[in-house]
Amino acid sequence: MAPEANMQTNTQRDVRPILSARGLFKRYGRVTALDNADFDLYPGEILAVIGDNGAGKSSLIKAISGAIRPDDGEITLEGRVVNFKSPLEARDAGIETVYQNLALSPALSITDNMFLGREIRKPGFMGTVLRKLDHKAMDKFAREKLSELGLMTIQNINQAVETLSGGQRQGVAVARAAAFGSKVIILDEPTAALGVKESRKVLELILDVRSRGIPIVLISHNMPHVFEVADRIHIHRLGRRLTVINPKDYTMSDAVAFMTGAKAPSEPVAA
Amino acid sequence: MSGIQEFERVLDGSDKNVASFEHQNISFLKRAQHFLHSTPAAVPLIVLVLSILIFGLTIGGRFFSSYTLTLILQQIAVVGILGSAQTLVILTAGIDLSIGVVMVISAVIMGNVAVTYGLPTPIAILAGLLTGGLCGLFNGFLVAIVKLPPFIVTLGSWNIVMATNFIYSANQTIRDADVDANAPLLHLFAINFRIGSAILTLGVISMVVLVGVLWYVLNHTAWGRHVYAVGDDPEAAKLSGIQTRKVLLSVYTLAGVIAAFAAWVSIGRNGSVSPSAAVTDYNLQAITATVIGGISLFGGRGSILGTLFGAMLVGVVSMGLNMLGADPQWKVMLTGWLIIAAVAIDQWIRKAGV
User: Fold this and answer.
1) Which of A187, B16, B183, B317 has the most CB within a 10 Å radius?
2) Is B329 within 8 Å of chain A by CB?
3) Whole-model pTM?
4) pLDDT the model gives residue A1
5) Which fold has domain A1-94+183-271?
6) Helix and strand numbers, DSSP H then E, in chain B
7) CB distance B241–A117 less than 8 Å?
8) Domain B42-55+64-347 adopts which CATH fold?
C-alpha cells in the first residue's frame, strides 16, 4: 500500500482506502483488458473513472464488482483481501453496481427488478413455510425510492421494465443501487441515457449518497458531470491507471489530453 | 451544489405528480394487444372457450355433456402434467425433449420395483421419483454447468433414456392385473368421483392442483421470479445477483420429478406399465400444450395457466373431431395450425411491450 498514490488530496493522506486493487490482469484470448491495473477508493469520496473507449474501464469495474475474476492481482475491501466469485458475493459484501447495460430483466416489473435476488417475504407462516413474497411491502419501498429520485413519470410500479423509456430504466437501476448499497456504490455511465432533469436528479442523488458517507465510483464520459461531482479523477489508459488528478487543479481539456494520450501527466502515479 | 447550471434552476418548479394521460384515442386492436401482453393466458383461454362453443353447437348435447367434458380432462391429465414440467424448462428459454421418455422409464421403475422385485409400493414410487429427478439433474448439469445447448442435451438424453428403458426392461409389459394385485397404490390416480354424469379422477384433480401450486410458486416466491428472470435475460439475472446455475439446475431437476409424477398418474390411467410407451411422442405433446398455451419459446414470458388451457384445447379439438367422425389426420393438421398461430400471436403480443 503506497499512500503517495493519493498525492493530490492531502486531506486523505492518512486515511486508508476502503476499496483498492493492485496489479490486476485480465486477458480475453489475445486481447489484454487489464494490464497491471491499480485502483484506490477512499472513504466518503466520489471517485470518477475516465478513459477512452477500450481503455479497460469496464473490465476494471467488473473485476471489483465480482462480475469477472481477474487473472491476477489483489483486491482489498476495508483492508481485507476479497475474492469475489460472483456479483452476489460483492453485493453481500456491500458493493452495489449499476452496469452500463443496467442488468434489468425486461419482462419483469419494476418492483421485481429492484428486489431481484433479495426479495422480501411475508412475515409468519405464509412467508417462512409457503415462501410467499410480500408484494405490497416491496411495491411501497420501490415507489418510495423512485419518488426520491424524482421518477414521477412512472405511473405503475408493476409495469414491465421493457415498457419504460431509457431514462426511466436508468432511474430504476440507480434507485436499486442507492437503496441497497452499504459500503461502495459503482455507477457505470449513469447519466448517459438520461434527460436534463433525470441527469440532475442522478447527480444530486450521487452527492446525497456521499453525504451519507458511502463512497461512489463514477464511470462517465460526461466531463462536465465528472468535474462537477468528483473529488478525484482516476484516468485509465491502455489497461492501467495512468494517474489520479484533482479536478480543481486541472481542466477538462487536460483530463481529455491525458486519457487520449495527447499529453503525459507531469507526476505519474506511484503505485 | 454550486455546479447547478443556469438552465437547470427551473427544475425546482417542475411538476411533482405522477404522470397521467388520456386514453381515448387508442384503437381496440391496440388495447387488445396490451391486454394480452399483461395477461398471457388469455389467448388460449379465449380459443378454448370458442372451440368448446363451436364443437358444442355443431355436435350438440352429446359434446356439451359433463361426461364428455370430464372425459377430455381425463385424457389430457398426463400431457397436462408433463406440459407443466415443460413450461418450467421453457420459461428459462430451454427445452426438454427427454421429458416423455423420462416419464416412461420412471413408470417402468415404479412397476418393476413394486411388482417384479416385490418391494413396498411407497418405496417403488420413491424410486420412480428419484429416477425422474436424476434424469432431470443430468440434463440440468449439462445445461447449467457444462453450458451445452438444452436442445442438444435433451436430444441426447432422450435417446439415452429411451435405450436404457428398453434394455433394462427387455420391453416386458407389467400387466394391469399384476399391478392391481401387488401394488394397488400405483393405481391411486385412477380413483374417480361421480358428480352427476361428470367423472373426475384423482389424476385430473392432481393435474389441476399441480398447476395451481406451480402458478403460486412462479408468481409468489423468489425462486419463481428468478425462473422468469433467467429466461428473460440470463446476463442481467446474473448481474442482479441471481445464481443462474442453481436456478437452471433446480428447474431441470424439478421437471424430471414432475415427469416421474406424471408416470404415476399414467399408470393409473393405463392400468399396465408398458416400456414401449417410450415411442409415443409425449415430449412433443407436452411442448405443443406449452406453446399453444402461450409460453414463449424464447423464455421469460407466459403463464403456466396457459399450458393447462393449451392442453385442454388440444383435448377438446381431438375429442370434437372424433365425435364428428373426422379422419384423425384432421386433428394432427389442426394442432399444427394451432402451434403456428400461437407462436405468431406471441410475436405480435411481444411488440406491445416495446
Assistant:
1) A187
2) no
3) 0.84
4) 39
5) Rossmann fold (3.40.50)
6) 15, 2
7) yes
8) ABC transporter involved in vitamin B12 uptake, BtuC (1.10.3470)
